[in-house]
Q: What sequence folds into this?
């Protein structure tokens, strides 16, 4: 009985393992038939190439084709050649007034009232000047200086538009950018103002608008490189006062280009006024014409009355004289308002013109040289 049971189990095990083997073999054949294709030599059964593979298919000299092969498009990757930046140099003004970095190929021209740097290839130019403001300006006065010069120097250009202003109160500096048209060409002008004691260093960079927009970073770095030399205040010498000529039709005067300008008019008069950034000095010009003939005696009384009505009631005339060119001069002061001034006037038929310079008494000596230059610049213009 036991032997029969052993033989039965042996037969059963063989049957079980045969069954397992048969099942595994069947599964293997099914999987093989579904997932694997037989491998044939290429010339009998070339592989099917997908669209993606077509793009990267290597050329094989073993493949025969009955049709003309398409040319292989090879995409070339071009590495841009970096633009070679020109060599730069650090330029130092001979009097150690300022330093500026710019390309080595740019030229420098020293003039009595300015330093001019230019690039012959692109037309970019830089003008560097400085102003003696008589006394160190506070922030509000410095802002008035910048506003006045921007208006007086650039405001007359067609298309003038200030589009950016950067202010650093800690460094007392301004950078002002504007667009304008010069000789029918669109320009960008970048101006930097930097105060050092009683002086203001000014840089104006001029560029064609198209060139500036394509090279803004480079040009901005040149402007930003401006720095003052050591001992600027000790080494600086007077270069004049950056005067600009004002013409009212009857006469002309040279006035500071950085003083605030305003004009008012009445029925018979036009008054033009320039005010210093610190508002302690004034240049004022007036023309009066009511159509009536004006004699010398009438003109003298009229001007005295004008001074007392518009400047100060307590004006005292300390000097009165006739000048060789026909003008008359009044030197006066007002103790109540703490102002002193010099007024010139002349009558031409029905027209009376008057111009005055005045300062706070405490600042008279500081402004003396500047206002003397203004007064001596007077030129009478032919009528009509």
A:
């Amino acid at each position: 009985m036991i032997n029969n049971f052993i033989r039965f189990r042996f037969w059963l095990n063989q049957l079980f393992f045969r069954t397992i083997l048969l099942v595994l073999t069947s599964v293997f054949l099914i999987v093989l038939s579904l997932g694997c294709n037989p491998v044939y030599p290429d010339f009998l059964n070339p592989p099917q190439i997908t669209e993606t593979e077509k793009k990267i298919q290597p050329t094989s000299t073993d493949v025969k084709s009955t049709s003309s092969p398409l040319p292989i498009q090879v995409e070339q990757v071009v590495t841009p050649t970096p633009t070679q930046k020109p060599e730069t140099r650090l330029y130092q003004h001979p009097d150690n007034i300022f330093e500026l970095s710019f390309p080595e190929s740019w030229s420098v021209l020293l003039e009595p009232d300015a330093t001019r740097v230019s690039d012959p290839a692109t037309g970019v130019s830089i003008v560097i000047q400085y102003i003696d403001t008589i006394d160190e300006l506070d922030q509000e006065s410095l802002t008035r200086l910048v506003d006045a010069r921007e208006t007086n120097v650039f405001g007359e250009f067609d298309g003038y538009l200030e589009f950016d202003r950067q202010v650093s109160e800690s460094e007392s500096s301004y950078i002002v950018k504007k667009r304008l048209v010069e000789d029918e060409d669109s320009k960008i002008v970048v101006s930097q103002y930097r105060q050092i004691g009683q002086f203001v260093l000014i840089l104006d960079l001029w560029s064609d608008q198209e060139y500036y927009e394509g090279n803004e970073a480079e040009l901005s770095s040149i402007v930003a490189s401006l720095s003052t030399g050591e001992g600027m205040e000790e080494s600086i010498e007077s270069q004049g006062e950056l005067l600009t000529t004002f013409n009212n039709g009857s006469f002309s005067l040279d006035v500071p280009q950085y003083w605030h300008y305003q004009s008012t008019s009445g029925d018979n008069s036009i008054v033009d006024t320039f005010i210093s950034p610190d508002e302690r000095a004034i240049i004022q010009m007036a023309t009066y014409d009511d159509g009536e003939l004006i004699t010398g005696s009438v003109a003298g009384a009229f001007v005295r009355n004008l001074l007392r009505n518009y400047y100060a009631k307590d004006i005292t005339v300390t000097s009165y004289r006739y000048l060789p060119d026909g003008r008359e001069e009044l030197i006066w002061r007002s103790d109540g308002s703490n102002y002193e001034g010099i007024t010139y006037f002349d009558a031409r038929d029905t027209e009376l013109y008057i111009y005055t310079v005045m300062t706070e008494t405490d600042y008279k000596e500081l402004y003396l040289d500047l206002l003397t230059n203004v007064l001596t610049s007077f030129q009478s213009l032919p009528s009509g």
Notes: The mean pLDDT is 80. Residues 88-235 form a domain with the Protein Transport Mog1p; Chain A fold (CATH 3.40.1000.10). Helices lie at 2-35, 51-56, 139-154, 209-214, 216-224, 232-235, 296-310, 364-376. The first strand starts at residue 88 and ends at 92.
